[in-house]
Amino acid sequence: MTNNLKKELHHLCVDLIQQRIDAARQAIEAAQQAAKDDTKSSAGDKYETGREMMQQETNRNMAQLTEANKLLVTLNQVSINGHSAQAEAGSVVVTDSGRFYISVSVGTFIHEGQTYFAISPGSPIGQKMKGCKVGDEFSLNGKGYKVLEVI
Question: Model's pTM, two decimal places?
Fold first, then answer.
């Protein structure tokens, strides 16, 4: 159960990152195709402005693609085996205020009816959780958390 939960959460994170990668690739292809399809009109400035906007869009999506690939590399370095006695990268931490998967920051998702927050160990809440054991308490931005379970 423990390893299965970690593996399932890991796969959900991979899927979320893959969706970002696919969306960025599609947007890059669309911007490049739009730039190719844009025919030069007698208003040269309009043509150049359109091409520049498409290039900026391509660059923005290339940055998103690069960032998503970095997330995927980082996620693949997170161990999904074993049980953790204290919160660390790869841990699932259940608190009285939410369930957290310490891996990479990819947002929130629902697994088997439960909401999980995928967070980075370097995030403010990830840093507060690091080393916490069952029963430990911490606060962030005035909100208190009590660790109920560490997997």
Answer: 0.83
